[in-house]
Each structure stands twice: as C-alpha cells, then as structure tokens.
Design brief:
The chain is an alpha/beta fold. The protein has two domains: 117 residues, Rossmann fold, CATH 3.40.50; 132 residues, Hypothetical Protein Tm841, Chain: A,domain 3, CATH 3.30.1180.10. It contains twelve helices and twelve strands. The protein has a six-stranded mixed beta sheet, with helices on both faces. A four-stranded parallel beta sheet has the order 2-1-5-6, with helices on both faces. Strands 3-4 form a two-stranded antiparallel ribbon. Helix 5 packs antiparallel against helix 6 and helix 9 packs across helix 10. The radius of gyration is 19 Å and the shape is globular. It starts with a strand and ends with a helix.
C-alpha cells in the first residue's frame, strides 16, 4: 500500500495538537484582516482571530477568496514527486466552488503522475465538520485503509456530519452571497437569533429562529440530543466566533446530558468567520443529517 498524506484547507477547525501530531497538512487560503490581505496556512493564533472579530465589530469588511487550481498544483506536486498519495478534505461544494478547482488540478496531476494519485473528498462540511472527518481519516489510515479506500469511506461519512449553529447577525452571510437579503432580514427583528444548518446537499439553510441567546443555545443542544448517532462516537466540535461564554454553555449542557461527551473546542477560523461575523456558536457532530430538517 502506498503511503499518503492527509490535507485539509484553512476553512477547517481541528484540534491543534491532533493536527500537529498526525502530520495533517493545510492548503492555504487568503482572507482580509481589515485592509491587510493574509494567507492562512493553518490554525491562526488566537490573538489574530480576536483581532478579526473585533475589527468586524468596529465595521471592518472581511473577505475571502477561493483556492485556485494552481495553488493545488503547487501544494500537491511535491508530495506526489515523493511517491506519496494525497487525500484532500475540501470545504463543501455547497458553499464554494473550491471543490471544482481541486478536481481540475487532479485531472492535470493524473496526466503527470501515473502511479500516485490525489483523492479529493467533498466533505459537504465546514469548520469542525472537516475536523471530525479528518480525525476519522487518521483512524482509517491507522487501521490500514489505502488512500482510495479511506476516501470512499469519508465520502459516505460526510453525509452523517451535522452542523447546527447560531449567528448574531445574518448580514455577514448576506454580504458573502451565502443567503438572500430577505432571509438576512430575519435576524434584525426583535432580538431573534437565527439557527442555521449545513443541509444534506452542503448548502446553508435557516432551520428556525429563537428569541434571545439562551433560547438559541437551548435549540442547538436539543437538536444535537435528538439527532446524534452514539454508534459513531461521543466526539463533538464546539466552535465560536469570539463567544467563549456561548461555547462553554454548549459544552456544559452537552455534558449534563451525556457525561461521555468528548468536546473539541476552538475559535472559528477566519476563513469561515469572515462570513458569519462575531458571536457565532456551533455544535458539530455525527448524526442523522436528514432528520434535522424534519
């Protein structure tokens, strides 16, 4: 079996120690921090992320750009030249055209390299959802799966990753073209907090709204409890956009329901945070993705 490297991109949130100890590599992505263009090559320092969210609170416009096919070629070619293969876990095709770009790069690399290949996986996920799948990819590799076998398993598993989150202000998602102007208006009325999910097709969908932060956080937990799949483990990812109190509340509530819960917690990466704004809080887990919308 050929050796292979697991890649993710800077739209992912993952336990930093886990990523470092298992040689998880990152495809870089650009984002703006105020007027500064930055290249994110992995988990950003907490102080940088706080600077991003404080800037948003003060009116900074934040933007991101897609990964180009050339970036994939530059990133993957050295690994293939070493005789190793690549699994790449991509940000959901329902949120960006990035997956199309990596497929273009793959077609070119397949012509150049006959004996080693890259295996792009459309995760239908973002942030900690990619983190969950990356942990699964490492476990699969340690259990002896080849790159192709691992990629196929991850494609199946991607349909079981559930993302449930609240945002403070939908206008950030509207500016990025992720939701319509009409939908964005919901969050401006009567202290309503929108609850969103990444739908089964990988796109963003507003699930429902709740009055106030407490109501929204309670909805996140009740949705997790009703749709989680214990057979896939007790791991959850709790990510937040400079809203530590909300993340703490989610973890505390989850542990009160199930003391075996194994949380990974991180501040939301800038590439995704640029579109959600400060105050976002999410619980991400393996479960029944279809049931969430019922």
């Amino acid at each position: 079996m050929k050796d292979y490297i697991i890649f993710i991109d800077a739209s992912a949130d993952i336990d930093r120690d886990f990523a470092a100890s298992h040689d998880i590599r990152f495809v870089p992505m650009h984002y703006t921090l105020g007027k500064e263009d930055r290249l994110s090559t992995g988990p950003e320092p907490i102080e940088i992320m706080k600077q991003l969210y404080n800037g948003q609170r003060n009116g900074d416009m934040t933007q991101t750009s897609q990964i180009t096919p050339q970036t994939y070629l530059d990133t993957f070619t050295p690994v293939l030249k070493e005789g190793k293969e690549v699994i790449y876990l991509s940000l959901s095709s329902g949120l960006t055209k990035t997956f199309d770009n990596v497929c273009m790069a793959k077609a070119e690399l397949d012509e150049q390299f006959q004996d080693v290949h890259i295996y792009p996986v459309d995760t239908l996920s973002a942030t900690g959802g990619i983190g969950l799948l990356t942990e699964a990819a490492v476990k699969n590799k340690e259990n002896g799966m080849s790159a192709s076998e691992n990629a196929e398993n991850l494609k199946e598993l991607s349909h079981k990753v559930c993302h449930v989150f609240m945002v403070e202000d939908l206008m950030y998602l509207k500016r990025g073209g992720r939701i319509s102007a009409a939908t964005a208006m919901i969050g401006t009325v009567l202290n309503v907090k929108p609850i969103l999910i990444i739908a089964p097709d990988g796109s963003l969908t507003t699930l429902r709204t709740k009055r106030g932060v407490k109501g929204a956080l309670k909805e996140l937990i009740s949705t997790w409890e009703a749709t989680r799949d214990k057979s896939l483990g007790s791991r959850i990812y709790v990510v937040h956009a400079d809203a530590q109190d909300r993340a703490d509340a989610i973890i505390s509530a989850a542990k009160n329901i199930d003391s075996d819960v194994d949380p990974a917690q991180d501040m939301l990466c800038p590439v995704i945070g640029a579109h959600t704004g400060p105050g976002m809080a999410a619980i991400i887990y393996f479960g029944d993705r279809e049931a969430i919308t019922k």
